[in-house]
Amino acid sequence: MTAVVTDLTPRQRTWTAFRRNPLGLASAAILLALAVIALCAPLIAPFPEGYGEDTFQPPSAEHWFGTDDIGQDVFAQVIWGTRVSMAVGLSASVLAIVIGLVVGICAAYFRRLDTPLGVLVDLSLSLPVLPLMILVAALAGPSVRTLVVVIALFSWPEVARVVRSSAMAIVPMPFVSAAKVIGGSAFWIVRKHLVPGVVPVVGVSVVLTTSRAVLAEAGLSFLGLGDPNSWSWGTILHKAQQSGALASAWWTTLFPSLAILLLVLSTTLLSVAYNDARNHRSAS
């Protein structure tokens, strides 16, 4: 048995260790279910629009999550909000990862750029993120695209710092020096050696950045800076606050809040489980 475990590749050892973590598997299943809900939203519930006669109805067999102040079904709002919230979270995460990956690798490989890029990252991390997000989103105007760009612009510094630390350990490796000796270009070395070396760290960053982006989107939308023509979990909370339903109709805020909590908790547990599996060392 020991010989079999020893013969496994690092990727196989990571997957074997990850499968032994029930919280990690459950978190992955929840995120997969949310992704399916986001993709299949039109098949699950009709788009919430217009007005209904049953206003402020509590959860029932007809309206699973109740209705709001204009009679719209809260279940449909949460289902369609899953699509927008996850789309904003993933898009902002991918954009932040790309920026952070480029900055982190450039700082690690091109030593002359390390100091100025390090100052830029430290300056970005020292800024008051939430007030600046609110200011930029308010000036740019409410839209899904604006939220994605604003969230990504304030999320990449943490990714860049993590990528730089990981890449700094790869640059002095013998295979990188050998690639330089045989005339490999900087772009080829970065693409063949540095990027594959930091991919595991980037994988964790994608999950964590997505959860932070979802939280940021919910906060900005709750403040009225989201797209008024689309539904997100933060938009549902904003409309509930505007209608005065926060105290009188608990179901209008409970279910979108639970959806946000579920996604953030699942992404956090998944990243922890993956990181533990990646750093797993089997007993000899």
TrEMBL record:
Matching CDD domains: TM_PBP2 (cd06261)
Stretches that traverse the bilayer: 23-45, 87-110, 168-190, 254-274
Predominant place of localization: membrane
Domain ABC transmembrane type-1: 82-271
Subcellular location: Cell membrane
Domain of life the protein comes from: Bacteria
Family named by the database record: Belongs to the binding-protein-dependent transport system permease family.
Protein name per UniProt: Peptide/nickel transport system permease protein
Organism: Nonomuraea endophytica
